[in-house]
Design a protein that fits this description.
Largest sheet: none
Shape: rod-shaped
Low-confidence stretches: 212-226
């Protein structure tokens, strides 16, 4: 949530608490009761969606992915050095061009590109393993590289999924806050017109001052809250 939404939610919860604590002032008035029920439901949905948004932060997943990419790049580059030396000695320009990539490039490539490049390096290592036996391209090294490639793939897609969930939650919050404000605007008029309990109206007015808006029932403009 942004700061404006947090301010609004504080006010929403103050209004909700007031209604819950003083039911006798309003539960016999059907329009007010209906509006409050709708408002209370929206506030509950906002809190649940905000929690889901918080749980969907991608920063941790991105950091994990970056660390994994560094490890993957080092494994792949170890094989690149062996294959490149073999390619130069045997004048194999096709092989050299296919695997000629720097460590820094592997560390900083977009994830789909680094996966593709590392897979090429692995395939070339497997293809030339026998011919380049003197360069110590072992089964273990090839297996470790393939395992690192396979392990890296889900990290990006998982982060993207989390990012999609965050976007959906954020959009959902915007919609819910809009609906809550519309419902509260109706409730303002209904409380002013239909509630006869002066203490309740006074408390309602105070609850509505907790955010940056005019307190319509009192008819006075309030200073914006930070």
């Amino acid at each position: 949530m942004n700061q404006r939404q947090e301010n609004s939610l504080t006010m929403f919860k103050a209004v909700t608490a007031l209604f819950q604590n003083l039911p006798a002032a309003w539960n016999g008035c059907e329009p007010v009761a209906d509006s409050f029920t709708s408002f209370e439901t929206l506030v509950s949905q906002i809190e649940k969606t905000a929690l889901r948004q918080q749980e969907s932060k991608t920063k941790g997943y991105t950091a994990e992915r970056n660390q994994y990419q560094l490890a993957l790049a080092e494994k792949a580059y170890s094989l690149v050095l062996k294959l490149r030396a073999f390619a130069k000695r045997t004048n194999n320009e096709v092989l050299r061009k296919a695997i000629d990539v720097s460590l820094s490039s592997l560390q900083n490539m977009p994830e789909q590109k680094v996966i593709g490049q590392c897979q090429i390096i692995h395939e070339k290592g497997k293809k030339h393993q026998v011919d380049a036996a003197a360069y110590k391209i072992t089964d273990e090294a090839l297996a470790e590289l393939q395992s690192a490639i396979d392990g890296f793939k889900p990290l990006g897609s998982f982060r993207d999924t989390v990012g999609d969930q965050l976007s959906v939650a954020t959009d959902g919050l915007d919609s819910l806050f809009g609906q809550a404000r519309e419902t509260l605007d109706i409730l303002d008029d209904e409380v002013e017109a239909l509630i006869e309990d002066a203490d309740f109206i006074s408390a309602y007015t105070e609850a509505r001052k907790i955010t940056d808006r005019k307190a319509r029932i009192s008819g006075k403009e309030e200073n914006p809250a930070v």
